[in-house]
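Hey,
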Amino acid sequence: MRKFLIPAAALIAIAGGTVVIAQAPASAPGTKDVAKVTGGTYTVDGGHTQVLFAYDHMGFTNNMGIFAQPTGTLTLDKANLSASKVSIELPIAGLKTGIPALDEHLLKPDFFDGAKFPTATFVSTAVKAEGTSATITGNLTIKGVTKPVTLDAEFYGAGANPMNKKENVGFVATGSIKRSEFGMGGYVPVVGDTVELKIIAGFQK
């Protein structure tokens, strides 16, 4: 799996508050036992799904941001994992960097143009699974531009949520895109064109 550049502690700045990181207890309902994953259709758990992005700023810093509360579905075919499908819709207005002026700038027409293009979407076209890992190829649409993207995904955990009794499954995926390919090439190459992605994806039945 691709090494991701965003340190977990940096989420403190993005969240704008204090973050306490603790180890999951031994009795956590979610486990890495793939036998607990059942086939069928899941919906995105918007409260526990995040898309993080990082980019080089003038060679001085590795800056970052986050999108949250997406919607979408995952269809898992345990008998034929290559037939599984995922479709995600991401609200652009939810972009957060921890810097309000930068958030406002990124939503303007020279970048995401959030007023005209309020969502970004990813729709898978192929899944190649091997053990607890998978390569997911799909079409990413940002700012009205659609390009193929490949994500490296890793199974994180599955089980029943004791709060709502629903089956849950989670993955972590990484990838990268060229922002200039989506009509957001401002300041390249002074500000990096490559954007690294890390997706914390939760789904529930």
